[in-house]
Amino acid sequence: MADVVQPLGEAERTLDRDCTTLSRHVLQQLQSFGAEAQDLSALMNRIALAAKLIARRLSRAGLVEGVLGFTGETNVQGESVKKMDTYANDVFISVFKQSGLVCRLASEEMEKPYYIPENCPIGRYTLLYDPIDGSSNIDINLNIGSIFSIRRQEGDDIDGEARDLLQHGRKQLAAGYILYGPSTMLVYSIGRGVHSFTLDPSLGEFILSNENIKVPDHGSIYSVNEGNFWQWDESIRDFIRYVHRHEGYTARYSGALVGDFHRILSQGGVFLYPGTLKKPEGKLRLLYETAPLAFLIDQAGGRASTGTQELLDVVPKALHQRTPLIIGSNEDVALVESFIQERAREAQETTMARS
Ligand code: AHG
Ligand code: MN
Ligand code: MN
Question: Core-most of 18, 152, 284, 320, by most CB within 10 Å?
Answer without folding.
Answer: 284
